[in-house]
Amino acid sequence: MVAIKNEDEFQMMPPLKTKLFDPKQRTLLGRDSASWAKIGLFYLIFYGMLAALVAICMWVFFQTLDPRIPKWQLDRSIIGTNPGLGFRPMSMENAESTLIWIQGANKTNYEKWKSSLNSFLDKYYTPGMTEKGTASVRKCSYTQPPQKGHVCDVDVKVWKECNRDQHYNYHKNSPCIFLKLNKIYGWIPEYYNTTNGLPQDMPPELKKRIVDAKPEERNTVWVSCEGENPADVEAVGPIQYFPDIQGFPGYYYPYENAEGYLSPLVAVHFLRPKSGIVINIECKAWARNIKHSRVDRIGSVHFELLID
After folding, report:
1. What is the pLDDT of residues 185-240, one digit of tens each?
2. Sign of CA dihedral 290, 291, 292, 294
């Protein structure tokens, strides 16, 4: 800090407003108009070139990306190679809840669940009309897989009781729950397509289904649902699956982000679940490269069913 020795020196110091703008020298903050023009031009060119450099770098970067094909796939991707299994409908009041509470005699109650499923299945009832536009949707089979540029239809309209015209049977306390595998680009299932080497923990009913299937039909990601505990097994009652193959047909894989692609679904029809108690249910997808983990929520899904 500079000390002022006397009053005369203090009076000789220029006032603050003169430092900001000096009308005699016609300077602003000590610079005249020419100086300000030069420094302004310098920063205009400097930041312009910097912006152009960033734009060029971003353009080059985006040339290495394909809007349909992820750069990192399978083991190199964040989601990995083990798909999760999801279910619908889910509670609209609490996104974290896995309880499906059905009151068949209460129209307000079952219409709520029906509305949720209608929203989820809308694009399945209107094949080809998805967020990405109209696609070439074809009916596929194990002997007629999709050709290049085509995607397979998921014909939920023929799933009998698990149909919106039948209210998905919620009004009869015999609900249909829909399952889907998470989409993983390029993932190819390793099927349990022989009767040898089936897992010990695979339900006996599913093992019999695999044995009875035709050889070409065994290229399927199988699905099973059962009660988690002995009491749940007794309470859950008989189960019916749609499509009848009891799984996700192999001709839907691999997923390659084709326009109009719809994830295959499995509808699980609980014919006569016991009322008045919460039934814990676990559904699993079965393939040799699908591992099951309740903690990581991969390969299987848990939900509760309560019938009033």
Report:
1. 889 999 998 888 899 999 999 999 999 999 999 999 999 999 999 999 999 999 99
2. negative
Q: How many residues does the chain have?
A: 308
Strands (E) located in the chain: 21-22, 27-28, 85-88, 99-102, 137-138, 151-152, 176-181, 220-227, 239-242, 247-249, 266-270, 278-286, 300-307
Q: What φ, ψ does residue 173 adopt, rounded to 5°?
A: 55, 35
DSSP code string of 185-229 = TT-------SSSS--TTS-HHHHHHHHHS-GGGGSEEEEEEEESS
3-state secondary structure of 79: coil
Question: CB–CB of 229/279 below 8 Å?
Answer: no
Which of 205, 228, 222 is CA-nearest to residue 285? 222
List the end-to-end C-alpha distance of the chain, in Å, as a whole number: 84
Q: State the Cα–Cα distance between residues 159 and 168, nearest whole angstrom.
A: 9
Supply the pTM of this predicted model.
0.77
Given a contact cutoff of 8 angstroms between Cβ atoms, the answer to whether 203 and 226 are in contact is yes
Cα torsion 93, 99, 100, 101 to 10°: value is -80
